[in-house]
């Protein structure tokens, strides 16, 4: 079965949840994680630290460059993810729907996120064909 990445995206300017809201979200995500494990679809998941804590490594030049902080300024960033093993895109999107409700954030399949971020029409068309071939 194909594996899908469900990403949890945070958007700059969104309010930080209260302590009570965070506790509820952690409980909901824990229950969602248990459900994914019980279904046999679980591969891996993780939450990420705030983007301000990032260290960027770029080894594409003569020497590796290590920089504190995020590489690019962005209004949206990855806050966490699940990798699931499911039969098709429809199943991945059903899990993304439940995951989004649990964490109170948008959850996307990897192909949908990549299609949205494609640099040109040709790249976008290739990604759509690839995604649809897995469905």
Topology:
Blueprint (H helix, E strand, L loop, with lengths): L2 E9 L7 H21 L2 E6 L7 E4 L6 E4 L7 E10 L3 H15 L2 E4 H8 L3 H14 L1
Comma- or semicolon-separated keywords:
single chain, 135 residues, alpha+beta, Alpha-Beta Plaits, four-stranded antiparallel beta sheet, 4 helices, 6 strands
Word description of this protein:
- It is a single chain.
- Helix 1 (19-39) runs antiparallel to helix 2.
- The protein has a single domain, classed as Dimeric alpha+beta barrel (Alpha-Beta Plaits, 2-Layer Sandwich).
- It has 135 residues and is α+β, with helices and mostly antiparallel strands.
- The protein starts with a strand and ends with a helix.
- The radius of gyration is 17 Å and the shape is globular.
- The protein is built from 4 helices and 6 strands.
- The chain has a 4-stranded antiparallel sheet with strand order 2-5-1-6.
- The model has no long low-confidence stretch (mean pLDDT 81).
- The chain has helices at residues 19-39, 89-103, 110-117, 121-134; strands at residues 3-11, 42-47, 55-58, 65-68, 76-85, 106-109.
- A hairpin with a 6-residue loop joins strand 3 (55-58) and strand 4 (65-68).
- The longest helix is centred in the first third of the chain and has 21 residues, at 19-39.
């Amino acid at each position: 079965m194909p594996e899908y990445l469900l990403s949890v995206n945070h958007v700059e300017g969104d309010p930080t949840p209260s302590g009570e809201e965070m506790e509820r979200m952690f409980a909901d995500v824990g229950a969602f994680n248990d459900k994914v494990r019980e279904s046999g679809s679980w591969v891996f998941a993780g939450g990420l630290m705030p983007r301000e804590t990032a260290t960027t490594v770029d080894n594409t030049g003569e020497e590796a460059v290590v920089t504190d902080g995020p590489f690019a300024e962005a209004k949206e960033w990855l806050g966490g993810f699940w990798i699931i093993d499911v039969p098709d895109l429809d199943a991945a999107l059903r899990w993304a729907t439940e995951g989004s409700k649990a964490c109170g954030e948008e959850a996307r399949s990897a192909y949908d996120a990549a299609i949205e971020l494609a640099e040109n029409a040709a790249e976008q068309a290739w990604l759509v064909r690839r995604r649809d071939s897995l469905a």
